[in-house]
Design goal:
Number of helices of chain A: 9
Strand order of the largest sheet of chain B: 6-7-8-3-9-10
Helix content of chain A: 55-70%
Shape of chain A: elongated
Order of helices and strands of chain A: HEHHEEHHHHHH
Oligomer: heterodimer
Shape of chain B: globular
CATH topology of chain B: Rossmann fold
Radius of gyration of chain A: 26 Å
CATH class of chain B: Alpha Beta
Largest sheet of chain A: 3 strands, antiparallel
Chain lengths: 206, 241
């Protein structure tokens, strides 16, 4: 969607060739997002099929066609800016599941949290290091991209801190609650004996 | 690279009546000169205590704190006071500037208290105010400055003279995101100029400006992450974006 709408936005300021669109897209985004020229032409073909753009000259060769935006395309570009990005339904991410499963697997969930947090802090350090090396005025597109990655990673650390605080506050009760879930039946129909998930935690330092 | 600060098996307890509270347990850290170190952790994790011990404001119950190669446990009161005055600069969340003194006077005050003449102290203050980018504000009073400018004044005060070790407790705690980032950028530049900066923060994004991030939990050092080498990182990230 970014490439499709990005090309429409580029064409909104006047007719352009495919290669020109690629260069302008990369220049305007400070090369944060590199475009494959093949992808540009494929997207242009779809935009033309949907009536959002049209080509001005009769040359059938893709590389020599000059494209311009239609009124429909202009409306689509405006609508894109006016509409919030749909983040979709929150997915069941691996990290949440890993922490949840560690509660009933005999693992110390705080260890899982700490390993993840160390990795996240390292990522934060990497992004920050990049920020120290760029001019925030002239490379604004890149800074905005880095800020987005930084804030997302920072949110992950804050979530890990919150989970850790909840686990510490709940103590073994949280784990006990999970242990109260009826054991699964084995293939032969007999209940599977669940290991005591609190055994590790009970002895762990608080 | 020589070490600016070392903590060897440092533990600290606070006693209140019959109640003994363990604030720090078995902390081992070596901080090379010219590095930036962040201490992060929840409230009560021991961040401020660690800063106080490292800066010689308190003496640990057990273990050894070594500043610029000298164990401070061996120092008498006079020498400890000199260490605090001449070697270590402090930055606080609320700036702690004296409202009736100008920016330059706030910065020159530690030198004048140490016997430096007023003229020489002002010259040194102006040099540091220039280093933190606010020399044109030298004759203003603190309440005429923004929060970011007041914190820059506090940083100039912390590094004036020959002090190379800077301790900061939540230096960005009272600032908005962009101003906080500019303060971190400034502290980073101070490190590149040879200062060693140790700061406590609850803001992990600001901690990421440090070379070394120490994670405290319940008074124990549970993790530390070192800053990576910048080589090829930029290329990798641009490729991944």
């Amino acid at each position: 969607m970014v490439v499709r709408n990005g090309l429409l936005v580029m064409l909104d300021s006047g007719p352009k060739y495919g290669y020109q669109l690629k260069m302008e897209f990369e220049h305007r985004t400070n090369n944060v997002w590199a475009l494959n020229i093949g992808q540009v032409y494929t997207t242009l073909a779809r935009l033309e099929r949907d009536g959002l753009i049209e080509h001005l000259n009769g040359d059938e060769s893709d590389t020599h066609q000059l494209y311009q935006i239609t009124d429909l395309g202009r409306r689509e570009a405006r609508e894109w800016f006016a509409t919030p990005v749909d983040r979709g339904t929150p997915r069941r991410n691996e990290l949440s599941m890993k922490v949840i499963l560690s509660l009933c697997s005999g693992q110390d969930p705080r260890q899982v949290i700490q390993i993840q947090r160390a990795a996240a802090v390292k990522r934060l350090q990497e992004y920050t290091l990049l920020k120290t090396e760029i001019d925030t005025q002239s490379d604004l597109a890149w800074v905005i991209m880095l800020d987005s990655m930084l804030v997302e990673t920072e949110a992950e650390v804050r979530w890990l801190d919150l989970v850790e605080a909840r686990i510490i506050e709940s103590g073994p009760l949280t784990v006990q609650n999970l242990a109260d879930i009826p054991p699964l039946a084995s293939a032969d129909g007999c209940p599977v004996e669940a290991p005591d998930p609190t055994s590790e935690l009970k002895g762990a330092p608080r | 690279m020589s070490s600016a600060l070392e903590l060897h098996r440092v533990s600290h307890e606070y006693v209140s009546g019959s109640v003994v509270t363990s604030a720090l347990t078995d902390i081992d850290i070596t901080i090379p000169a010219g590095t930036m170190v962040a201490i992060v952790g929840a409230s009560g994790s021991g961040k401020s205590t660690l800063l106080k011990l490292a800066g010689g404001l308190e003496t640990p119950t057990a273990g050894q704190v070594i500043v610029e190669g000298m164990p401070i446990r061996s120092f008498g009161d006079a020498r400890l006071a000199m260490l605090r005055r001449r070697s270590v600069g402090y930055i606080f969340q609320e700036y702690n500037l004296i409202p009736s003194l100008t920016v330059a006077e706030n910065v020159s005050l530690p030198l004048e208290l140490d016997g430096v003449t007023a003229t020489a102290a002002r010259t040194a203050a102006l040099t540091q105010l220039d280093a933190v980018g606010i020399v044109e504000l030298a004759d203003r009073l603190p309440d005429q400055l923004s929060g970011g400018e007041q914190q820059r004044t506090a940083i100039a005060r912390a590094i004036v003279g020959d002090r190379t070790l800077v301790m900061a407790d939540e230096p960005t705690g009272a600032l908005d995101s962009l101003t906080g980032e500019s303060v971190m950028r400034l502290l980073r530049h101070r490190c590149m100029a040879g200062h060693t900066v140790v700061f406590a923060t609850h803001n992990v994004a600001h901690a990421a400006w440090a070379d070394l991030v120490l994670y405290l939990r319940d008074g124990r050092l549970v993790d530390q992450t070192c800053r990576v080498d910048a080589d090829s990182l930029l290329t990798d990230l641009r490729a991944r974006a």
